[in-house]
Design brief:
Low-confidence stretches: none
Helix content: 25-40%
Distance between the termini: 17 Å
Number of strands: 8
CATH topology: TIM Barrel
Bound molecules: phosphoenolpyruvate
Largest sheet: 8 strands, parallel, barrel
CATH architecture: Alpha-Beta Barrel
Order of helices and strands: EHEHEHEHHEHHEHEHEH
Length: 246
């Protein structure tokens, strides 16, 4: 079964209204590459405005709360993000796991909350450099994935992003062999829980993906696209990454 490539920008805590022109330009790029599903996970403050200029791209959030409503000052529910115009959200990004202490259990709960609000989900996993150096990366990340996996995980609403923590924003990436081995291991781990559904589930690579390395990374078996930080902030930088997915 063919898996349509998915290329998603994660703008993190970057972007003011002045950058909506980049969103519009990326939406136009997406329209030129219909074989690829292209999206931008934006700061929540930009989602509603971006929804009006997104073209063929989808707009996503970067996190959501696991509860529907209540006394959670400063947090946003999945329904709020959906109402603002998000179609997707990231959950479990390593920066949230590190900075906000989010656990695998939190991540699974957030994914379920997102699904209940009609959002599709990109669930992030990845190892530290210590784990990589110790030679434990595949087993540790597979366990993290299974512990973070929401009930009812299915390919039509969930994608996985493998993001080695030490590769995010550093300009360093694993060897192509290491990426291939990890993605194969993650699909096998998924199959132990969701059976044949694992074959259709997209597993993205993330971590210093850019126009120079995207074609090689996305050419790897079991790499079904990319989650892209720095290289998604402008249409000029993101264009070769999207083109590489075709
Ligand atoms: C990310 O934030 O998910 C990411 C992969 O960042 P970068 O591409 O900048 O390494």
């Amino acid at each position: 079964m063919g898996r349509r490539k998915l290329v998603v920008g994660n703008w993190k805590m970057n972007g003011l209204k002045a950058q909506l022109g980049e969103v519009e330009a990326i939406g136009a790029l997406a329209a030129r590459h219909p074989a690829v599903e292209v999206g931008l996970c934006l700061p929540a403050t930009l989602i509603a405005a971006a929804d009006g200029v997104k073209g063929a791209a989808f707009i996503g959030a970067q996190d959501c709360h696991m509860k529907d409503s209540g006394a959670h000052t400063g947090c946003l529910s999945a329904a709020m993000l959906a109402q603002a115009g998000a179609g997707w959200t990231i959950v479990g990004h390593s920066e949230r796991r590190q900075d906000q202490g989010e656990t695998d259990t939190d991540t699974a709960a957030k994914a379920l909350a997102a699904k209940a609000a009609g959002l599709k989900v990109i669930l992030c996993v990845g190892e530290s450099l210590d784990v990589r150096d110790a030679g434990d990366a595949e087993s540790v990340v597979s366990a993290q994935l299974l512990a973070s996996l929401p009930e009812g995980a299915a390919a039509d609403w969930l994608a996985i992003a493998y993001e080695p923590i030490w590769a995010i924003g550093t300009g360093r990436i694993p060897t192509m062999e290491a990426v291939e081995t990890m993605h194969r291991a993650l699909r096998a781990a998924l199959a132990t829980t969701i059976g044949g559904e694992a074959e259709g589930m997209r597993i993205l690579y993330g971590g210093s993906m850019n126009g120079d390395n995207a074609a090689e990374l996305m050419g790897i078996t079991d790499v079904d696209g990319g989650l892209v930080g720095g290289a998604s902030l402008t249409a000029a930088k993101f264009a070769p990454v999207i083109a590489a997915a075709v």
